[in-house]
Amino acid sequence: YGKNTIKFLRLHIEGKKHFVKEVEVCTHLRLTSAQEYLEGNNSLVIPTDTIKNIVLVLAKKNGIPSLEQFAIDICNHFMTTFCQVVYVKTYVQEVPWQRLHENGVPHIHSFICVPDGIRFCEAEQCRNGPLVVFAGIKDLKLMKTTQSGFEGFYKNEHTTLPERHDRILCGELFCKWSYGECKDFDFDCIWNKIRECILEAFAGPPDCGEYSPSYQKTVNRIQMHVLSKVSQVQVIEVVLNNTFYNVLDMKNLGLTNDKEVLIPVEAPYGSCACTLGRK
């Protein structure tokens, strides 16, 4: 049991410069006994309102140096404070505020919300067990307008999809990875590096791109690139929900449409998912 959707903004000020972290936290606990379920005895139950208040107090006292460290702080607090807690899991996701720039100059206290992917993390721990930390990015929308196709697929009497050697590849990406033994990682630096790897693998070199024969191959390329560049990542899961675009037939309008006007196919949509880890 636990408390979901604990939302707050943490403001930190250094001199004249302001820093913000707006997050949503979910924290769940497992206790030594199930007596509250079986007998209606609540003597060991930490109220969910107390869970909420603990999260807010930790944000006030410790700040949010990184999402992962904040999740670790929450787990450590419950494990060290309450002997009846045998398992704690905390999920934290961040609202994507970025500092506003005016004529290239960073503003000291103004921000803009940029929907270029939502950062999240999870930390979980069993009593007498290791602390496990996951991190990720979701709702990251990506598109490339060429260097993608889908050919040579299995066909039978139900197949109507034509082969394409030049199509738009577009999708919404979810990526989650696990760390090995958590040491003094710079979680912010690692997360930014992984995001950079995702974009590099999806797009290819900026001057020419890289051909993608399928969504599946793109998913694998992302995973392999991250594992090759970021040694701290042990297992990486990628889900790519596909958005398809059909070229509009404009012959009745007396026009030839050479992939210039396309209509998005909202539903149904495809999805590719894969989890890849080191040996």
From TrEMBL:
Q: In which pathway does it act?
A: Purine metabolism; urate degradation; (S)-allantoin from urate: step 1/3
Q: Which SUPFAM superfamilies match?
A: Tetrahydrobiopterin biosynthesis enzymes-like (SSF55620)
What is the uppermost EC class here? oxidoreductase
Indicate whether Oxidoreductase appears among the record's keywords. Answer: yes
The record's Gene3D superfamilies line, in alphabetical order, gives:
Urate Oxidase (3.10.270.10)
The UniProt record gives the binding positions of 5-hydroxyisourate as: 48-49, 150, 167, 216, 242
Name under which the protein is recorded: Uricase
Main localization of the protein described in the UniProt heading: other
Instruction: Enumerate the residues binding urate.
Output: 48-49, 150, 167, 216, 242
What Gene Ontology terms for biological process does this UniProt record contain? purine nucleobase catabolic process; urate catabolic process
What are the recorded GO MF terms, alphabetically? urate oxidase activity
Q: Which Pfam families is this protein grouped with?
A: Uricase
Localization in the cell: Peroxisome
Protein keywords: Oxidoreductase, Peroxisome, Purine metabolism
Its annotated function is as follows: Catalyzes the oxidation of uric acid to 5-hydroxyisourate, which is further processed to form (S)-allantoin.
Record's InterPro entries? Uricase
**What is this enzyme's catalytic activity, as reactions?**
urate + O2 + H2O = 5-hydroxyisourate + H2O2
